[in-house]
């Protein structure tokens, strides 16, 4: 799809062509559909062992549903053995309940051309989520503000390879905790026309998300369709708290999607072994997805797996490691056997700067996610310092590299053009392919090309200031924000959203805890 966001100058001839060249274009690629196989690391015996062990955990050890008497009663009514706040789920019950969850679903955007299909062979890319700090080349590391949040939403909207606006692209600490979700939702709804995520930090904030979505899309449309995908983290190990479960209840009841995602740091919140961690991940997801179906059978839900290992010397989380890859590959197989969409992966790194460490770890993480069959990739760009920082430069560096995932996922074409036999015949022994007809017909699309990296000769690069990638990325951030043009929104809808935000904020005192 190609959308021209700036109105072209009227007229013909040279003026029209000049206007065409200088118009601001905002290209957005469609969500990825893989034409390559998933990498499957576990054999049938290993999968059956892990599935059996996960059911054993649910039945014998159980999971906690804290400070939520209604959830405990739902489980009793479903046939679980509830002892205090511990729920013991009989073997097979959770899997039976999960069977009503859809294997794929459409998340609608306010611009229908931006709708995404989550599940199957598709991969939807969304930006970083949750960091309280931001970093840029000029300002360094600092607490995030609402202006930073708006800037990241704009960068996401302008990024060709991102399909989704995301959720908490950074945590704006200059706005009260009990009110910031309103400003964040308003930014996603007005500054972008891509799909977005709702708030999960308190059940009433999930309710605000649904109400604002109804203003944006229309109440009837929201009742019949999924317009939000939101992140519900499990307090691993084996604990579901009232805040996250309350948000899940709101979204499931409204037929809005939730990612049910264990938050695993191997060695701290799960066993150090791959099979042990996968057992716990599966048990937690089974319990969470099953609970969503107790709220509303058929509610869309995603099998989530956020997994990292730990540095046993410092206790810090580590990223891009082979163990995390093993778990991510295996969790993908388990999700597909359950028939659920799968969320994992991202531009994970532990580096403090967008440097070589960040690049290595991020490349490992992105390629792992592509090959593991991920359907929804949160944190696809902008992640720095173990998720504590949203980086402006890394956001555009990562967003640029997401183009490689699109091209890798296309696979290898062996149609008549892909075979290239005409070119081989034309050139023959000892020739070159630069001027042949096949090359001339395909050169514009044959190879993926970065919009950020410097491919110039050394002399030209040196004359232009010998700029490294972070410097180029900083310039690209400024260009994208400078070129940004807000997508049109019906005036009545815009006024209704602004009024809702104002009224809700005026109805309560500021709270920063």
From TrEMBL:
InterPro entries: MttB-like_sf, MTTB_MeTrfase. Residues 1-21 are annotated as: Disordered. Pfam families: MTTB. It comes from the Bacteria. One of its GO terms (molecular function) is methyltransferase activity. Keywords: Methyltransferase, Transferase. GO terms for biological process: methanogenesis; methylation. Its EC number is 2.1.1.-. It is an enzyme of class 2 (transferase). Belongs to the trimethylamine methyltransferase family. This is Methyltransferase. It comes from Cereibacter sphaeroides (strain ATCC 17023 / DSM 158 / JCM 6121 / CCUG 31486 / LMG 2827 / NBRC 12203 / NCIMB 8253 / ATH 2.4.1.).
């Amino acid at each position: 799809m190609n959308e021209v966001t700036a109105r072209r100058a009227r007229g013909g001839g040279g003026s029209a062509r000049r206007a065409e060249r200088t118009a601001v274009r905002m290209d957005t690629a469609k969500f990825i559909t893989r034409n390559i196989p998933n990498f499957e690391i576990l054999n049938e015996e290993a999968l059956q062992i892990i599935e059996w062990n996960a059911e054993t955990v649910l039945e014998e050890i159980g999971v906690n549903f804290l400070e939520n008497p209604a959830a405990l009663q739902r489980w009793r009514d479903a046939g679980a053995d509830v002892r205090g706040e511990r729920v013991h789920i009989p073997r097979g019950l959770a899997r039976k309940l999960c069977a009503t969850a859809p294997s794929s679903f459409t998340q609608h955007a306010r611009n229908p051309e931006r709708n995404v299909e989550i599940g199957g062979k598709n991969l939807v890319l969304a930006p970083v989520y949750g960091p309280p700090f931001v970093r840029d080349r000029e300002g360094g590391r600092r607490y995030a503000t609402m202006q930073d949040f708006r800037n990241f939403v704009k960068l996401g909207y302008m990024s060709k390879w991102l399909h989704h606006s995301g959720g908490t692209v950074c945590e704006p600490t200059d706005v009260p905790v009990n009110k910031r979700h309103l400003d964040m939702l308003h930014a996603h709804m007005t500054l972008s026309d891509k799909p977005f995520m709702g708030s999960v930090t308190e059940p009433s904030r999930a309710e605000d998300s649904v109400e604002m979505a109804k203003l944006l899309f229309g109440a009837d449309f929201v009742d019949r369709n999924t317009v939000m995908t939101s992140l519900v983290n499990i307090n691993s190990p084996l604990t579901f708290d009232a805040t996250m479960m309350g948000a899940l209840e709101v979204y499931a009841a409204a037929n809005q999607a939730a990612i049910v995602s264990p938050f695993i740091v191997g060695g701290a919140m799960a066993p150090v072994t791959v099979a042990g961690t996968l057992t716990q991940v599966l048990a937690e997801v089974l319990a969470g997805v099953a609970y969503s179906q107790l709220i509303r059978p058929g509610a869309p839900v995603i099998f989530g797996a956020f997994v990292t290992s730990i540095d046993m010397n410092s206790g810090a989380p580590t990223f891009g490691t082979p163990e995390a890859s093993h778990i991510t590959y295996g969790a993908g197989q388990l999700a597909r056997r359950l028939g659920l969409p799968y969320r994992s992966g991202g531009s994970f790194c532990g580096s403090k700067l967008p440097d070589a460490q960040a690049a290595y770890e991020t490349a490992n993480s992105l390629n792992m996610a592509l090959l593991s069959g991920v359907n929804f990739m949160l944190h696809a760009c902008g992640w720095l310092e173990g998720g504590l920082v949203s980086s402006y430069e890394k956001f555009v560096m990562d967003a640029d590299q997401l183009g490689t995932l699109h091209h890798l996922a296309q696979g290898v074409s062996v149609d008549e053009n892909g075979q290239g036999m005409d070119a081989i015949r034309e050139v023959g022994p000892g020739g070159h392919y630069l001027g042949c007809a096949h090359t001339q017909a395909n050169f514009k699309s044959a190879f993926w090309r970065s919009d950020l990296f410097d491919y110039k000769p050394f002399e030209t690069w040196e004359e232009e200031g010998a700029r490294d990638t972070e410097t180029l990325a900083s310039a690209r951030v400024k260009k994208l924000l400078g070129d940004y043009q807000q997508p049109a929104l019906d005036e009545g809808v815009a006024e209704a959203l602004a009024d809702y935000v104002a009224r809700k904020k005026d109805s309560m005192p500021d709270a920063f805890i």
